[in-house]
Every structure is written in C-alpha cells, then in structure tokens.
C-alpha cells in the first residue's frame, strides 16, 4: 500500500475514491505540502482532503492556507467542524480572515466563537486594515516589573500553553505601560532569586498599533528580532508581532510590489485557482492606461514628421533608442522601489538619488553610445547620423536613469505607493521624452 501511494498521483487517488490510500498519502506529507495541494484542488476535492485529516492536523494545515482558501474550506465543512476550526485559530489569523470575508461569513464565524475569543477578535478588527494591530497577537505572557526571575518562570509555565509565543516576554508597569522585554533564554539561565528588573531590555524596538504592518515587519527584519512589542498611543502594551506573521507581511508586500512593477493589480489567492477572467481583469486597467500614455509617443512622432521625411534614416534607429532608454529607466525604477521598500532611501533623498542615477546613466550611455555609433554607421553609412545616435544614447540613458530613480521617491513623498510608478509606466514616459531628445539632437547635428 505504501509503495503504491508514494507513486500514485493525488488526482488519481481522488478520482478512484481510494480513501485508504488518500489517508496514507496525507500521513506521509508535511503540512505545507498538503496545504499546497488543497489550494490547487477544486472545492469538492479540497473538502474531501481536509475532512480526512484528524482534528489537530487539520488545524495545522488550515493555518498554512491563505485567507481565500480558508474561506473555501470553511464553506465546505459542517457547523461543528466549522466552530472547532475558527475557535482553534490564533486571534490575529482570525482577524485577517474576517477582514477579507463577506459580512454573512463574518457573522457566522463570530457567532461560533467563545466569548473570550470573540472579544480578542473584535479588538483586533477594531484596528485599520493593513495596520500592525491587525497582525499582532494579544495572546502572550505579560510579566510585571517588581517580581523575581523565579516568579516570572512560574507565570510562563502557568500561562505559556495559551500564548502564541513565549520567546519574547513583555514587562509592564502597574498601568500596563511597556517597560521593556525579557528573552526566555535569559530568564531560564538566570538565578531564580534575582529580581526581574535586572534582565529587562528597556531599549528594545517597538511599534505602535496604528503603524503599517509592513513598516513593523521591516523593522523586525532590520533588528533581527523574533518578536516585536506593539503599544497603543499611551505606550500601553497591546500585543506582539511574531516572526512568522512578519514574514507573511513582507512576502505579501513584495508580491504586491512585483505586480505593480509589472503594471498589474495584485492577485489575491493562488494563481492556478484564479479564473482567466480574474487574471485578465487584474491586468487590463493598467494596460489601458499605458495605451493612453503611449499616445504621447505618437504625438511626438507626428510633431517631428518633417524631420523624418527629410532624413528617413532617422526612423531606422527609433526602436533602438526608445528600447534602450526604456530599459535603463526600468532598471533604475526597480532599484529605487526596492531601496524604498527595505528602507535604504527616503523621500528626502530624491535629489541624491537623481544625481547618483544621472551619473550612472551617463556612464551607461557612454558605453552604449560607443556601440550604437558604430552600429548606426554600419547601417546608415553616414557619420552625422551615427553621431546623432551616439549622442542621443548618452543623453537618453542619463535622462531615463534620473526619471526611473526619482519618480518612485516623488511618489512616496506624495503619499503614492512607489510601486505604482511601475517600470512600464516609466518606460512609456521615457519613450516619448527620449524621442524629443533624439530629434532635437538631430536638428542641431544635421542642421534640419
């Protein structure tokens, strides 16, 4: 049986209604692999696979799914199983699920929760979507400042089973204001008779509940933290952002940036489960905008049609010039968006970045211009036209790098997502302005 299960495809086992081998297949796979197969499956197959898992395993696999797939599973299970799953979820995971769900689904989930879990979930739902308050866990072991190490360890043992994490322990005063944190390792290695105050890291990084989840997650990444304390406006401790949630936030942010840079809307859920219509809808709006933007290029060509008619060889090099300029601009834009995302540059650095990219673009232009000059001379057999192409490549590369590096920073300064200034948008703009540069240089060199 084991040998057949290892060789068999999951789809074949499902089609044959071979419950025994399906069960064995599930037993042999880790949670994340089962979750991936459930994500790829249709709703009926996903429901069958999920129901074959025992209660504890089902809870672990469910936690590996994203919100869209979790909704799909919950709509396919019966009331008691539904209540067991949502009750067993961590409050932060539950809050994010409900933040994306329809109102009737949310009401069904909240109705199935115990009073304590309902209160915790409602508290997290009170924060704005995208804020770290939606992603933090309130289920932690909180220590008081005036106790001993031994008393602190006793509290961890009593309450640790109900907490999502015990590796970072917040220490608060009588008013619940955060004093600092203690690491579990330091606590275990200390003398039980020592006062806890001596172990508290009062300078530990923290975030406010209204901060964006991405900024908090990036802060954890920069500080190499397992957990980040979260406080309210009065510096009272309200929860911890854990490393697993921080990684999910960063992954989601990076996925969104990649989509924006490719001139598409971010896609929720698994790619293979999204319909063709949904995929097309996520891309068509940006493509329509780019078509409108591309009319600038047509207008530029119309404005300089006299020069093209007089020296037809100029038209031969338009694809080379606009393509090179667009590529340089796209490279600079991608680098700038990435630098903004990881905190390497700020909106106030726009002039520094523009000057830096101008020099980079000029250097690239010199190298590419030399090649372009030779290429143009071979094709056109005209030294003046070759000079026009070479000079244009230098100017266009410098200009494209400035635009690509500066526009995302200007967007951030205006409160716009830098990724919205996507590479295709920069490329389209550089195409039109690059042609203006080309024909202006041609007028000077060729005396048109």
Give structural notes.
- Helix content is 65%, strand content 6%.
- The termini are far apart.
- The protein contains 22 helices and six strands.
- Residues 1-7 have low confidence and may be disordered.
DSSP strand count: 6
Percent range of helical residues: 55-70%
Tell me the β content. Answer: 5-15%
**Biggest β-sheet: strands ordered side by side in the sheet:** 1-2-3
Q: Give the C-alpha Rg.
A: 29 Å
The gross shape turns out to be: globular
Which stretches of 5+ consecutive residues score pLDDT under 50? Answer: 1-7
Major beta-sheet overview: 3 strands, mixed
> Would you tell me the overall average pLDDT?
85
> What class, by secondary structure content?
mainly alpha
Number of H/I helices: 22
Q: Termini distance?
A: 83 Å
> What's the helix-strand series?
HHHHHHHHHHHEHEEHEHEEHHHHHHHH
């Amino acid at each position: 049986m084991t040998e057949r299960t290892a060789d068999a495809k999951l789809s074949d086992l499902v089609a044959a209604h071979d419950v025994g081998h399906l069960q064995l297949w599930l037993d042999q796979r880790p949670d994340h692999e089962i979750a991936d197969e459930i994500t790829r499956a249709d709703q009926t197959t996903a429901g069958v696979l999920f129901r074959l898992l025992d209660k504890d395993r089902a809870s672990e696999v469910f936690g590996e799914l994203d919100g869209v797939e979790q909704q799909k599973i919950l709509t396919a299970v019966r009331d008691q199983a539904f209540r067991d799953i949502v009750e067993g979820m961590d409050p932060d995971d539950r809050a994010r699920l409900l933040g994306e769900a329809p109102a009737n689904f949310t009401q069904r989930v909240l109705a199935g929760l115990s009073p304590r879990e309902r209160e915790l979930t409602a508290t997290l739902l009170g924060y704005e979507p995208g804020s770290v308050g939606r992603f933090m866990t309130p289920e932690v072991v909180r220590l008081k400042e005036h106790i001993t190490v031994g008393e602190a360890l006793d509290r961890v043992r009593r309450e640790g089973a109900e907490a999502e994490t015990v590796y970072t322990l917040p220490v608060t005063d009588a008013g619940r204001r955060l004093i600092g944190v203690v690491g579990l390792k330091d606590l275990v290695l200390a003398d039980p008779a020592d006062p806890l105050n001596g172990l508290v890291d009062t300078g530990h990084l923290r975030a406010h509940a209204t901060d964006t989840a991405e900024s908090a997650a990036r802060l954890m990444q920069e500080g190499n933290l397992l957990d980040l304390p979260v406080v309210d406006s009065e510096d009272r401790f309200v929860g911890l952002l854990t490393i697993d949630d921080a990684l999910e936030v960063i992954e989601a942010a990076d996925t969104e940036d990649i989509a924006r840079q490719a001139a598409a809307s971010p896609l929720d859920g698994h790619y293979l489960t999204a319909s063709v219509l949904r995929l097309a809808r996520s891309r068509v709006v940006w493509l329509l905008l780019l078509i409108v933007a591309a009319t600038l290029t047509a207008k530029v060509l119309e404005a300089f049609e006299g020069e093209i008619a007089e020296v037809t060889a100029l038209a031969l090099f338009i694809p080379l010039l606009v393509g090179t300029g667009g590529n340089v601009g796209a490279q600079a834009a991608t680098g700038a968006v990435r630098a903004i995302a990881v905190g390497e540059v700020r909106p106030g650095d726009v002039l520094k970045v523009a000057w830096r990219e101008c020099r980079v673009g000029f250097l690239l232009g010199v190298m590419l211009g030399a090649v372009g000059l030779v290429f143009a001379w071979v094709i056109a057999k005209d030294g003046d036209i070759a000079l026009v192409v070479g000079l244009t490549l230098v100017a266009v590369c410098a200009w494209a790098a400035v635009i690509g590096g500066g526009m995302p920073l200007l967007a951030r300064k205006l409160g716009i997502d830098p990724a919205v200034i996507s590479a295709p948008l920069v490329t389209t703009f550089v195409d039109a302005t690059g042609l203006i540069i080309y024909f202006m240089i041609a007028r000077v060199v060729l005396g048109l």
